[in-house]
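Hello forum,

I keep getting stuck at the same step: I have a sequence, I want structure tokens, and every attempt I make locally crashes halfway through. Rather than fight my setup again tonight, could one of you with a working pipeline run this one for me? It's a single chain of 208 residues.
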Amino acid sequence: MRRARLRAWLALLTLAFVPIPPAALARAAATAPSAPTARVAPTAWRFDAARSSAEFVVRLRLRMRAQGRIGQVAGELVGDPAHGWSVSVDADGRGLKVAGPRWMERSTRSDEFLAVDSHPDIRFRSERFSDRLLHAGGRVRGQLTLRGLTRPVSLRLLPSACAQPGRDCDLRVNGIISRTAFGMTAHPFSVKDDVELRLRVRLQARSP
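Reply #2:
Ran it on my machine without issues. Output:
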């Protein structure tokens, strides 16, 4: 009886000191549950509405142009330098003011053109773009909603003149959109198809 117990004890000691093959260790590590990694919430910078604006320039073929401005624009810049940024812009077209004669403002605001009273919501939602583009400038693609229609557009973010774009200096975005793509088909022989869009944005304190 004692010999049987001794043999069993020696067998257990032998198993305890048998080296585990590296492949088995790798398999165990692969199947072991990994510790959850904490997700870092993206930074959100809101627009300073009083210091942000949108402009539209409609050019006539007789060397004239209608230039309109929306004085307050809302939105936010969301992301971080490592993963990139996205921007959303919201403007109320009813605040559009057009320089020049009154007939030019009425025509630009009318349903034949920007239709700001019928479709006041003007929105832009960008695709994600890099931190390098935020500083150096380049093409920002996204979806523009105008006159109740949403279309893909490509706008140009101008190079920044400061270390913290939008906070220490304005973000400036320019672009050309086709008015016919957004249903503005009236007066094709007197009004050019290209409508210039200009955005100027200043950011305020980050959201909590």
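Residues 38 and 59 are 52 Å apart (CA to CA). If your local run keeps crashing, start a new thread with the error log.
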